[in-house]
UniProtKB/TrEMBL annotation:
The lineage of its organism: Eukaryota, Metazoa, Ecdysozoa, Arthropoda, Hexapoda. One of its GO terms (molecular function) is N-acetylglucosamine-6-phosphate deacetylase activity. It comes from the Eukaryota. GO terms for biological process: N-acetylglucosamine catabolic process. InterPro entries: Metal_Hydrolase (IPR032466). It comes from Photinus pyralis (Common eastern firefly). The keyword Hydrolase applies. This is N-acetylglucosamine-6-phosphate deacetylase.
Length: 221
């Protein structure tokens, strides 16, 4: 998840370390060329998924190369319009990172990234992650996403290393900066701000929340 993100949708990522990819060489320089191909025959590729904003730099043109290597390209931390998100899916993006969070919001005249969950343009609909902690998203928003594309719905925690720890302020290194993340219950915030810094919820809690809010059964959850 990074560093090829849109600085206007950086979340808790340090803007100073975000970059644009102009060629696949930039991606290799970031992740290591050896991590973008199988180490040995029959062995999986080390990098399984990359979250990036398709509208930044030349990333849109690089999606086919990323996908051809068996790496999941996930749209996230992005200002992509519906048209840009649709193009990304058409070029090989198969996932959306924590839908609704750190992206252009749904608008009735430009549905943004959420719009690709519809069947317009005859594109294959991508999978998408949903954080069901009750903090990142309203329960009704989660139901809307599930009803739009239930087969693509993936529960994720977005959990940080503070899961299970007592409430309090904990140091966190962000690039070359050190700041505190404040934990209060399941909510994590950057100190002295309203910026959500991941979550401290478990996957079981996410499943239980989804069951309560969606009205679906245990097998489907």
């Amino acid at each position: 998840e990074g560093p090829f993100l849109n600085p206007t949708k950086n979340g808790v990522h340090n803007i100073d370390v975000l970059i644009e990819a102009q060629s696949f060489t930039d991606i290799e320089a970031c992740y290591g060329a050896e991590n973008l191909r199988p180490q040995r025959e029959g062995k999986p590729i080390p990098v399984k998924m990359i979250t990036a904003a398709p509208e930044r730099g030349q990333m849109m043109k690089l999606i086919p190369e990323i996908a051809s290597r068996g790496i999941i390209y996930s749209v996230g931390h992005s200002e992509a319009t519906y048209e840009e998100a649709s193009e990304a899916v058409g070029r090989g993006a198969t996932m959306i990172t924590h839908l609704f969070n750190a992206m252009r919001p749904l608008h009735h005249r430009n549905p943004g990234i959420f719009g690709v969950l519809g069947k317009a343009e005859n594109l294959a609909r991508p999978y998408f992650g949903i954080i069901s902690d009750g903090i990142h998203l309203h329960p009704t928003t989660i139901k809307i996403a599930f009803n739009a594309h239930p087969d693509g719905f993936i529960l994720v925690t977005d959990a940080m290393h503070l899961v299970g720890l007592p409430d309090g302020a904990y140091p966190w290194t962000n690039g070359e900066q050190t700041c505190n993340i404040v934990k209060k219950g399941s909510k994590l915030l950057l100190e002295n701000s309203d910026t959500i810094a991941g979550s401290s919820i478990t996957l079981l809690e996410c499943v239980n929340n989804f069951l309560e809010w969606s009205g679906t059964g245990i097998p489907q959850a």
